[in-house]
Structures are given as structure tokens and as C-alpha cells.
Amino acid sequence: MSSTDTAPRLTKNRAAADLEAGLDALDSVVVQRVPIAETLRKKVLPPTLAVILVLVVWQIAFSLRVTDSYKLPSPAMVWSSLADLWQQGMLFSIIWTSLWRGGSGFVAAVIIGTPIGLLVAQVKPVRAAVGPILSGLQSLPSVAWVPAAVIWLGVNDQAMYAVILLGAVPSIANGLISGIDQVPPIFLRAGRTMGATGLTGARHVLLPAALPGYLAGLKQGWAFSWRSLMAAELIAASPDLGVGLGRYLENQRESIDMPGVMLGIILILFVGIAIDLLVFSPLERRVLRNRGLLANNR
Predict the structure, then answer these.
(1) To the nearest 10°, the Cα dihedral for 282, 231, 103, 96?
(2) Half-sphere exposure of 98 (CA within 13 A, CB side)
(3) Distance from the CA of 3 to the CA of which of 20, 46, 53, 205 falls in 20 to 30 A?
(4) How far apart are the C-alpha atoms of 221 and 215, rounded to whole Å?
């Protein structure tokens, strides 16, 4: 081969290598540390201003006597109820009772819902038979299961967990099914070519590829778990169950203590938001950022 033929080939190979390096650079995720001041300005300041605005409107409505004070207490009255609960040493006990039930019920729902979602997504006859039932169960309000759970299991923790599972499992399974449906077929073909079939393919190809949709299902599953637990605690009452947030809310209603009712609502909302912000949102951002689906400054 002459030297005149080798030179263009080397130039062509170098250009291809440069192009490949450029594409790799575009695909790579550059992690940039966001300044604390910018984080506070973009993520802390807006919700803080929104809370302050709600408190101002609430206080104005109370001062103008829009309705009777026993129906609409002032923010200070609710704060006083919170201080009383703190002084009695019951605040963290009430929160922990519900948080433990909701968390452990959610973990059980993940353990049960994940294989169900995987089976329904992969086996067509099972999907045709069970898929519509899962969708119907997801749209069924969890409170509807409370009377049946109490009759079946009695007024105890087992009934609480049954309501949580019936509310959260369909959501988690449907989230995984949706995530698997969005996996590009070329991923599955590539996995089969490399010998990843059956459980090995599910573990190393299918579940990682479906992770964004699965994560959305987990996030929704936690919301269903929390709502289901609150519905069960509101309706079912027993000394053996202790006092969770739902039972505390119902106790305050029976006492016609509106500041206590408002405090119960706020605590339920606070725990739900805290779990989302501390657990699911960071996990979701990390997964999406690692896949290049999220801007670095979010």
C-alpha cells in the first residue's frame, strides 16, 4: 500500500475519534456545585413566602371575624395547641406512631407490589386478567377498605396495614408496569444478546431501565400509604392502637377543639411534605440527573 493511501485513512480515523469523543462529552453529566445562597433563593425562599402569605390571609380572616372563632381559630391559637402538645410530651409520640405505621406499611407494599408489577408487565395473559383490576383498585378510595378490614381483622394494627397495602400496592405495581412499557425494545434485545434473560434480565436490564417510572410509582405509592393510614386511624379507634395523627385529629373533633383540629391537619400535611422532600425528591433528582434527563441546577 502506498503512503498516499495511508495518509487519508489516518486522517479519517482521527476525525471519527474526535467525533466520538465529542459525543461522549455531550453525553457526560457535569456536576456543578450550586452556591448555598442560590439554593436558598430558589428553593427555600418561595415556599417560605407562600407559607407567610397563607398565615397573613388566615390572620386577616380571623381579625375580620369572617366566621365564629370556634370555627376559624387564629394561627396563634393553633400555635398554642402545638406548645401544649409539646409540653405534654406527646408531640413526637403521636407523629412517630403514624410515621412508623406508614413507613413499615409502605415497605411491605413495595415488597408485594414490585413482583406483581413485574409479572403483570411481562406476562400477557396475566396482564389481560389482572391489569384492569389493578387500575380499578388504584382509583378506589382507600377509606372504602376500612370497614371491611375492621370486620375481617378487628380493630388492630393488622387492619391498619391491610388498608395501607390495599391502597399502595396497586399504585406501585402500576408505576412499575408503566416504567417497563416505556423501556426501549433495543435495551431488551441487547440484554438477551448478552445472555440476560429471565430474572437476570429483569434485575440487570428491565428494572434499571424502568427505574424513572418505577420511582414515580413509589412516590405515588407513599402518598397512597399515608392517605390510607390517615383514613384508617380516623375511623378505627382502640386503646391498643395508641394515638397517631389521624386518631389525634378525630379526638380533637370529638372535643370540638378547632385549634387542635387545625393542628392535626397541619401535622399530617407537614409529615407528608417532609417525606417527599427528604426522601423521594432527592432520589428522583439523582436518578434523572444520572440519566441526563434533568438540568444540573435543579
Answers:
(1) 100
(2) 30
(3) 20
(4) 9
What distances in angstroms separate CA 57 from CA 60, 70, 174, 259, one per listed residue?
5, 18, 40, 17
Taking only the tens place, the pLDDT of each residue in 161-197 is 999 999 899 989 998 898 888 888 888 788 778 877 7
Q: Is 0.70 surpassed by the pTM of this model?
A: yes
- Work out the pLDDT band at 46, boundaries 50, 70, 90: confident
The gap from C-alpha 160 to its chain's centroid, in whole angstroms, comes to 19
Residue 123 C-alpha cell reads as 406476562
pLDDT tens by residue, 212-238: 888 888 988 899 889 889 988 888 877
3-state secondary structure of 154: coil
- The kind and range of the H/E element at 111 are helix 91-122
pLDDT tens string 104-153: 999 999 999 999 998 998 888 999 998 899 888 888 888 888 889 989 99
* 223 closest CA partner among 182, 269, 177: 269
List the one residue out of 83, 76, 81 whose CA is nearest residue 59: 76
Q: How far apart are CA 62 and CA 72, in angstroms?
A: 7
Handedness of CA 280, 282, 285, 291 (dihedral sign): negative
Identify how many contiguous H helices and E strands the chain contains and give both numbers.
15, 0
What secondary structure letter does DSSP report for 29?
A: P
Nearest to 168 by CA among 111, 121, 97, 225: 225
